[in-house]
Amino acid sequence: KLKDNKHRIELLKAEIEGNSPLSILQRGFAVVTDKKTGKMIKSAKKLKADQLIDIRFEKDKILAQVKEDI
User: Fold this and answer.
1) How far is CA 21 from the centre of its chain?
2) Residue 20 — left, alpha, or beta (φ > 0 → left; ψ -120 to 50 → alpha)?
3) Alpha-carbon distance 37 to 31, whole Å?
4) pLDDT score at 64
5) Residues 15-22: contacts with CB within 8 Å, 24+ apart?
6) CA-CA-CA-CA torsion for 23, 24, 26, 29, nearest 10 degrees?
7) Residue 16 in contact with residue 23, Cβ under 8 Å?
8) I need a labelling partner for 34 at 20 to 30 A (CA). Which of 8, 23, 53, 62 fits?
9) What pLDDT is recorded for position 27?
10) 53 vs 14, 25, 47, 65, CA distance in Å?
């Protein structure tokens, strides 16, 4: 039973690590946040022309400015 519990813990650990924000960034995704509020942007429809945003990649980030509304 202890062996089964250890195996379950390892499976859960792998699942948690696979879904961590850092792991997602390592797979090539980016996180976009509003520069002013720090809130995550989940849709381009929420952006406005001239809005400043931070785009975070695995190892760095860049400041960008929205050119136009959708």
Assistant:
1) 5
2) beta
3) 14
4) 98
5) 22/58
6) -170
7) no
8) 23
9) 87
10) 32, 17, 9, 6
Q: Residues for the chain: how many in total? A: 70
Band (pLDDT 50/70/90 cuts) for residue 23 is confident
d(CA 19, CA 27) in angstroms, rounded, equals 11
Q: How far is CA 35 from CA 20, 52, 53, in A?
A: 22, 5, 5
Q: Is the pLDDT of residue 18 over 90?
A: no
- In DSSP notation, 46-66 reads G--TT-EEEEE-SS-EEEEE-
Query: Residue 19 has which token pair?
Result: 């879904």
Q: Residue 19 above 90 pLDDT?
A: no
Chain-centre distance for alpha carbon 25 = 6
